Amino acid sequence: RAAGAAAALAAAEPGRIPELAPALANMSLAAFGQALRDLPPDNRRTMLCAVYRILAAALPGATQAAARAIAKAGMAPKAPAGCPGR
Fold this sequence. Notes:
This protein has helices at about 1-10, 15-25, 30-35, 40-60, 60-70. It is mainly α.
């Protein structure tokens, strides 16, 4: 339920994504995935970027390794403006 509520709020008020990102970063992978699926594509990219910033600050080594693996596999989406690495 929390994932759906966060997604609905982010979709209705995209300016609140930075304050909602910490909640999504702490959800289970299943709940996080559900929240992302519930978001429109533009908001999804913005939310992913916001969550990535949180994880990168908390776990820089692990996050960098994951980002390299995703890029190497050719699965990395284009980063939105303001996202790290852009």
